[in-house]
Amino acid sequence: MNAVVDVIQTSRDRYLEELNALLAIPSVSALPEHAGDMRRCADALAGHLRRIGLQNVRVVETPGHPIVHGDWLGAPGAPTVLVYGHYDVQPVDPIDQWTSPPFEATIRDGQLFARGAADDKGQLFIHLKAIEAHISQTGALPVNVKVLLEGEEEVGSPNLDPFIRGNRDLLACDVVVISDTPMLERGVPSICYGLRGLNYFQIDLRGTKGDLHSGQYGGAVENPANMLAHIIAQLRDKSGNIKNPGFYDDVLPLTDEERMEIRRLPFDEAAYRRELGAPRLFGEAGFSTFERVWARPTFEVNGLMGGFTGEGSKTVIPATAMAKVSMRLVPNQDPDKIAGLFEAFVRKVTPKTVELRLTRMHGGRPWKTELDNPYVQAAARAFEIGFGKRPVYTREGGSIPIVMTFQQELGAPTVLFGIGVPDENAHAPDEKLDLGNFFGGILSSAYLLQEIAQIGRA
Ligand code: BES
Ligand code: MN
Ligand code: MN
Fold first, then answer.
1. For ligand 1, atom 8, which residue shows the shortest CA distance?
2. I need a surface site. Which of 191, 219, 299, 334 has the fewest CB within 10 A?
């Protein structure tokens, strides 16, 4: 390992230059005008996989954005590790709130600022560099490695699911490793053993065929913006409890033991509140902040639109109103079942005075794994060597729906080996990657391959 560690320590500048080149490609999966950039990013990654020594590298076409795949299978009898990451990023708006341009990576105060720096280009990159370090120094990897990179994670992975189902042999592995989550705190390596699921809906209401004078017609027809607010108000009470009947039926309660473990984690509530700029924290009574975010479901309005929102005033009854809403789900809630309950409830509470259109966008199943598998223990050892600190075990409130597909289709456990930080501003302006975590992450990933080789095939 000495030569591998040395090359990692002496290649930092090059790693940064290479990552910066990747971050310069505006691979925004949600926006059609970036389709060319998505392809450019996939091609750049494929070139990169070839240069670090992977074989059978392919850019796989899909009806959406391409999938990039490559492998190195020169360690017969050793375990096979599938590294998954996503090269797509979220849109950059509001662009005027970025301190430096989102696609020109800039270092300030030990942080690399760019869209995708943390989510997920910077994180997936640690594994590519660890693979490169092993192959360049020893001519081989201690385990078999498959790399799978998608360009549609941020839009619900519509094409990766079928790709996995159709390519079980190509992707067969003993463990899936993903770096796409934050650490509990900067410099506190964390192994995440649970993620929330998701259901996303758009609600459209139409009252009339066009906007109306609110004096001339107010009182004679329903106002869809009022009605939308009314519908939304019935979905959640002011303490955060979801009023959709049946919603909580399958929620797996936290065990006493898990609650005790969560209480032991370092958490400065006042600092957390201040960092967010919230006047008060808010959430379900009887649960701590980590419990609320990690293990309890939520209903959120993501966006709301309707009527006149310009400067000044306009007396108008808008013809339409629209909301984007989503629910974070927890084990053992089933997104399809919850979606059915949600649709039924919204239809029931919507009066005949408006036309309702409900569109289900994407969904994802919640995930929680056991900590007693040898790969988790290997990951813990690798983090401990790489960061000089024992990792903590966390859950997260975000979603990586494909993890459940890996489990079901490949029968492989996932280890979440994230090196983000809680204040990384993912999906927001000034997204950043902590460079200490980046370099520590490369080192940890190099050790991870080694540690997995040592346990052999479980
Ligand atoms: N990397 C995140 C997932 C994440 C965020 C996990 C924070 C843990 C903590 C991922 O890129 C993401 O944003 N996922 C989406 C999924 C959705 C688009 C299906 C999410 O959670 O909103
Ligand atoms: Mn991500
Ligand atoms: Mn994301």
1. 398
2. 219
